[in-house]
Amino acid sequence: METLRDAFDFSDFSKGERIGLVLFTLFLFIFPWLGAGSFVKAVMIQFLLFSLFGMGWNTIGGYGGQVELGKAQYVGIGAYTVALMMVWWKIPFWVSMPIGVLIALGYSFMIGYPLFRLKGHYFAIATICTSLVLQDIFINWKLVGAAKGIELPIHEHPDFLYMQFKSDTYYFYFIFALFYVGLFYMNWFRKSKLGYQLRMIKDDEDAAESLGIDARWCKIKAYSIASAFVAVGGGFLAVYNLYIDPYSVMDLDLSIKIALMSMLGGAGSMWGPIIGSAFLVPLDRFLGSWLGAQKGLIGVDFMIYAALIMIVSAYQPRGIWGIIEQFRRRGA
Amino acid sequence: MAILEVVDLVKDFGGVVANNHISFDIHRGEIIGLIGPNGAGKTTLFNCIVGYHKPDAGKVIFKGNEITGFKPFMTNREGIGRTFQLMKVTAGMTVLENVMVGSFCRTENRNFAKVEASAILGFLGLDEVKEYHLNELPIASQKKVGLARALATQPELLMLDEVASGLNPKETEEMVNLLKRIHQEKKITLFLIEHVMEVVMPISQRVIVLDGGEKIAEGLPKEIVKNQRVIKAYLGERYAKDL
Description:
The complex is a heterodimer. By secondary structure, chain A is an all-alpha fold. Chain A is 74% helix and 1% strand. Chain A is globular. The two termini of chain A are 35 Å apart. Chain B folds into two domains: 142 residues, P-loop containing nucleotide triphosphate hydrolases (Rossmann fold, 3-Layer(aba) Sandwich), CATH 3.40.50; 72 residues, no CATH class. Chain B has ten helices and ten strands. A six-stranded mixed β-sheet of chain B has the order 6-7-8-3-9-10, with helices on both faces. In chain B, strands 2-1-4-5 form a four-stranded antiparallel β-sheet, with helices on one face. At the A-B interface, helix 8 and helix 9 of A face helix 2, helix 3 and helix 5 of B.
């Protein structure tokens, strides 16, 4: 009961934030009816998906302060579980997705247990490595389609059991719902015992240990929560793209993007991952399609992208949300 | 009954023996001071007891159970609280949240933790700075937050590492009174490392002196100040001869 109340209670946020959240929700509700083209809709779906990834990353990377750069392996686990179970045994999404989450949880405990002996940069490097190893295994593993990947059998529209639709509007509302489940979870998480303990570990790990906190165990728990979140997103990706291969769902690029968006938006804050992805996903897409199409300008979008990240991190390490809070404090 | 027994403890940092066969007992309800010049091995001894270092030999016994080699979070759960000489001053959490983390050690319930933490902040006179971050506070208040955090874990033995360092005489006096109150009202055994004699001497019931990793003296404060070896360690050989 208390858990539920915490999840839906936004009263400790400022008035501005609450109004912002309501307006944002309303906007999302009516968005598909605003007459946006399919490209804009696709960008919007990407935005919500990356917000979900980011919220997951934020538990361990933001609140826990552990720079984690291997989330793509869990996107892969979620996506492959959904895809393979459907291809092999025709298992519906609503069964295979939770199984994917469970596999991701188990796998993250296995990885997290040895990995959290490491700290700081060494931990970050190790997470990259485990993700790359898993990607390599999948690239060479014939049974799961190897480098060619797997295509999902197409079902008739609309299929709510296998979650396959012709129209992006359905997918939009689907990820919209997942996004809000994530948001409410995070609202509970930041007020939970684990949330407090993680923030203490981030601030001062030695002091945290002296306060009866088993730092390593807390980190493993947060890492698993993050992995479960990301695996849900991976499952969505499988039914949304209807085709997955190790390059699209397990790439290092994806891991970095997930971490980067949250850091740019403001790691360790409720809105950071959402802001970061609202900023970077459209930028990535629009710049890519606009500049990438012009002769001689290929790669310029990446330069702009990189420059923005450098500017924000030099100016305020706590990201865009950190800048906003800075101004708010000055105003108050 | 001894609440803490340290038996023949050795910590060797590969060449430098920081703690050389140190033994002593602390009884429930006592206030014990640990003094010694810089590099005497005081903080190392603390770290060996609490679990930041693993002793190379010897035993640490708390309330009759051996806790040698326990991790810091485990010794805390057994009932040992500690504060640090240097607190990391961060902007991540408010004072109240800091103390709540301590309370969470004994409860799952956030509202309960908040009530607990607020009570402790009230006890230490930190009510007004509840919503501030650590980096916005003067050093005396930071030290008190460290104390509050440790108290929130409901320790039976509280180990304080130079709780008065960096404080002015008035703040030091306030701190001494606070320690007395913690001892009397909360019935907590205190074990403190201290450089400031104005803190150790008036409140300690017994004083342990370390020098160069060895225990060179133990006894009542008034005996310790007259002890030749202690004077030598603190003031240097030449001064000791002149005495």
